[in-house]
Structures are given as structure tokens and as C-alpha cells.
Model the fold of this input.
Amino acid sequence: MNRRELLLAAASAASMRGATAAGIAPIKVNGKEAAAFYYAPEWDKPFLYPIRTVSGKVLSRGYPVEKIEGEQTDHVWHRGIWYGHGIVNGQDFWREQGRDKTSRLIVQGRPAVKASKVSALTSMVPPDGKAIGSIRQEFAIADKGSLRFIDATITILADEGVALSFGDTDDGGFAFRLNDSFRQDRGAKLRNSSGLEGTEKIWGKPAHWVDYSAAVAGTRMGVTIFDHPSNLRHPTAWHARGYSLNSANPFASKSFSKGRGPDGAHTLTAGGKLEFRYRVVVHEGAFEPDAIEAEYKNWAK
Done:
């Protein structure tokens, strides 16, 4: 049995028991598995995978969870939907460069799974093994017609007696990585709430939402991220890259402006917490800016 078969078998077994197994916690909507929360020790941070439409089409990149012939294999840490940041107290919780160099988000115990919801508390652990803080990740999935809503709450806790300093870098945030159909150089459309299109215009720019869409087998489909008005520095700026990566990142104003803007660093004092709310909308069929904006306003209020 190859790696993909083992992973799918583990997820299936966990789904049948309604529990977690092999570091995979399935999430069901209307009795069907919509996604799973991956948290096994082999991964340096947890992630939600795959990103599926209501009808079951997979829009996320398979690599490195699944090896798909011809698919791009850059950035091994780009998996489904995840959260991380490139500079926290001088440590990198975004890139993964090997266990002796990589800071990790380690799930404490097992995630709490209840029907279409999952939550997990992760420890922020640098290579020296001494935790500097925690991040609670909560996901809830619901379907409405052809739209799938993935609501995420990311709560950062400075609960280890030290402040958490988030440095200015574009490598970080609440992110997704889609498959190669959603690359701009293969015809995908990248657009934001300001009416701008293309990574050249939307990268680093503030917006209420960013949408990636493409025609796949003759059907338009895609993924949108909404930034909640309660979030720090709303509307956030976006690490929206043409190779099918998108990340909401409020800590990169200098990086995004190539050094011309103010420092985007932010310090969370010891004992404090910082909460971010996002909605991911997975859509199949027509979902044009007017419809996206209507859904955004309904959620944001």
C-alpha cells in the first residue's frame, strides 16, 4: 500500500469511528466527509485538507500529502489551508527547513471534533524545544447550495510568560494553496474586493476579500477568503501569488511596499491574546464579484 492509500485508509477508518486516527481528524457535513484536520508529528504545523467543493471536487494542491503526476512540488509547507508566520520572536513558523532549523506548531493532545467542527490548541515550539506561546485553531464547515463555507478562528496566546513579536514579512498569515488549475499563468483569475485583477495588482494590497477562480473541465470554480472587520489592521493586505497561493497577512506593510511603507511588526504583550476571524468560500459555478460582495457583507455584519 502506497503513502496515498495509507492516508486515505486512515482517514476513512477515522471517519467510520467518528474519531481521530493516525493524526487525521475528519470533518463531516451532512454525513459526508468535507475535509480533515491533519496534525500528525510528521507535519511541522497542522492544516485542513483537502479543499473540496460541495459536489466533491478537490481544488487544493495534492503535494506533499498526495503525489500527483505533473503537479508542482515547490514549497512543501503549502498544504491545504493553514496558519503560520515567518518571524515570531525571531523564529520562522512559516517555512520548513528541517527539524533542526524549523519552528513548529505542535497540537496539544488530540483535536476536539464535533460533527462539522474541529478545534485544536497548538504550542509554538522553536528548534530549542521551549514553547514561546500557543495558537488555538478552530474550523467550522457548512454548505449553502453550491457554496461551502469554512469559518476559521485563529487565536494567538502569549501564555508562556513572554511577549510575542510578529516581524514584518510577507511570508505568513492565514493561507490556502490550490492546484495548478488555479495558476495565473494557466488562465486562472485572481481578483479582490477593490475590483483589481492579477497578482501584479492585488499582491500586498488591502482588501476585504480575495478570490481565485478557474474553469476546470468546463465549470467555473474557486476559493475566496474573507477578512473580518474585527481583525487587526482590517482590511488586511494579501500575499496573493500567481502560482495559486493566497494568504491574508496583516504583518507585512513594509515588505509589501518594498520598504516604502511603515513597519508592519506587532507585539502581543505577555498574557495577551489576538484573535483573527476568516471565512473561506469554496464555490462551484457562477460566483461573480457582486455575489461575493453580498456574501461578504452578510457575514461581516
Remarks:
- The chain has one domain: 42-300.
- Confidence is low (pLDDT under 50) at residues 1-20.
- The helical segments are 3-17, 199-202, 253-256, 289-300.
